[in-house]
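Exercise 7. Predict the joint structure of the components listed below.
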Amino acid sequence: MTALLDGLDIREASRAPLARANPAAKLAVASVISIGLILTVDPVTAGVALALELLALPFCGLSPRKMFRSSWIILLGAIPAGLLTLVFGVDDGAILIGLGPVTITEGSLSSAIAITLRILAIGLPGVVLLATTDPTDLADALAQNLHLPHRFVLSALAALRLVGLLAQEWQTLSMARRARGFGHGLKQTLGQVFALLVIAIRRGTVLATTMEARGFGVDAPRTWARPSRFTWFDGVVVLGGVLVAVVSTAAGIWAGTWNLVLT
Amino acid sequence: MSEARPPLIEARGWGWRHSTRKAWAVRGLDLRIEPGERVLLLGASGAGKSTLLAGLAGLLDPEESGGDEEGVLLLDGVQARGARQEAVQEGQALTGLLLQDPQAQTVLARCGDDVAFGLENHAVPDIWPRVRKAMEGVGFPYGLEHPTGRLSGGERQRLALAGVLALGPGLLLLDEPTAMLDPEGADLVRSTIATVLELTGAGCILVEHRVQPWLPLIDRVVVLEPGGGVYADGPPGQVFAEQASSLVAAGVWVPGRRPEWGTRVRTGEGVAATPLLTAEKLAARRPGQAEPGVRDVDLTVRSGRALAVTGPNGAGKSTLALALAGLTAPAAGDLTASEELAKGLGPHPHAWKAGQLVSRIGTVFQDPQHQFVAPTVAGELAVGPERVAAQGRSWWQRKPGVRASSIGSEEILQRLRLDHLARANPYTLSGGEQRRLSVATVLATAPGVLVLDEPTFGQDARTWTELTALLLELLGEGRAVVAATHDLDLVTALAEHGEVVAL
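Solution:
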């Protein structure tokens, strides 16, 4: 619980060019690449996309350690997904290993590789987006560049800051409940989650009052203290994302492995 | 920080009822406050002080949030909520609201952004010069980029004040702004508010129990009657002289009247002060903390004796209290329970099971809501004995509803004046009632040691007096009381029956 919530703290500013790009551009890159990869399950498209992403990674200013710390959750998904496909996937082609009911064939091996690469290639841009973007900057870009409703975006941003506080509250609650005679257990944990919710709602209500008292929520135009600019460089970044999607898809089609998932 | 335009406040038969409540929070209020007046708003808990402030801030709207309104509440002749809308469109706030909980008043992650938030909402074109000016105005020690997550409570309140002041309000609405701060933090916030009022000529309406330090700022005192109307109104000297006893009964810390805790320790001298807990070179840290917050503590907790742990904010008072309470394991050194306390268990309290701990060491947290686990007050009192009884039995032997003898739970409720609330939900109680309940729940398992973390924080004078008297009584029964506190009055009261550890 606390490990999950700890990742939501403020990001350090990075000087790397891709890290400094407008969050809206980074979001566009991640979306375009995802769409390209969601359409197909094949090792070539996913592999080429992942290779291109890895080429761009040095320009994102992430140390390997930070990279791993923010991406372990994708590995957690990708590796088991690959293994399961390997063992239980549709058998096709020559049998490589056969152990009773469990058989690994060329077909299931190829699907497993495709699935793993696909999850990694879709996840990596998202990880880079989250690891290099300050939530405040992301909110600014969403409201100013993508013109999402600012009331919604700013409320979500303020709520996110409260979520970070919940990690501390959780630890205090754990001790406070031990002091009432409660140990660890499923029922106890559920009770504690409920208590945490009550605290979160109470805090959220006061925070909403604070925000309204400072003029938030009135239906009137507002200005922005941090203008979020979308420059030609951000355009280039988006173009780069489109290029990754196009090149990888073209490679898949050229290799004959590209197949539309929907059909 | 200039050109504030203090508004004239008029309430005519004004009343407000929150949407889920049966009773009116405020009713039949007739009040006129001249521009620039500095008013202290008093009244018993539940008299509607906070509701009036929310109304003046323009935040109560029957159409938007629900609720019922009677009469009118006017700022310069305009309905308060309409005045707020107009102010937002004009780019200058009429009122600025500062609340109690510092954590719930920070909106954004960087200090500068947080101050800029209100200016953005008011569509101010040139934001940053005003942000800098407001931050200078409250003497804020950090820059624009400083993360708000690293601020102390007092710094946070000053940042919130800067966010309010940047909008140039003519009226400050202050709802116990220092109740959750340590004395130094409170002093700083108070002097900042005094400076700001002096510089801008803004008026203020202050809700506060601890009146004394605010007196130089105040020209008028208004006491609200619970259930509606104004009970007393006039210059501070006059109101405090005429209404002293009723104000004391309402929990106000009336200037010049030190609360009396009366009860003497009955058998304190006769009881042998046997050691219950002994700390040797103890270092303690909170979960998640990398370094111990407090180190090399040597002390002994003895039966029938008090131990007051004091020190400035961040010195580790609470951290030490949690370790003494067996809620965290020592980071270094030793904490040993004597056989009198352990009653057959091992000597390390943090290794005891939760159900074993509650009948030996009871802990009262700073925020009572952290410890509520049952839907009713009576249920809260039954939980502790149930947990004790569940110890040593396997789960198939536990029967719901079969509880250990809860003899005494009614007595405890009576003693803490909670018996009429036995069926109420703990979360709906007032602050003082919640505090008394959190102490009551601990007493239900009759522990030998009571550990309290800032028990008097934000409490009114009446609750303070009752709590102090109760702690002294418990000492008389031979229990040990450990209190981590920066409340000097409480330290004085406890020091007569024990010792003080200054961190």
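Discussion. Chain A touches chain B through 50 residues (CB under 8 Å).
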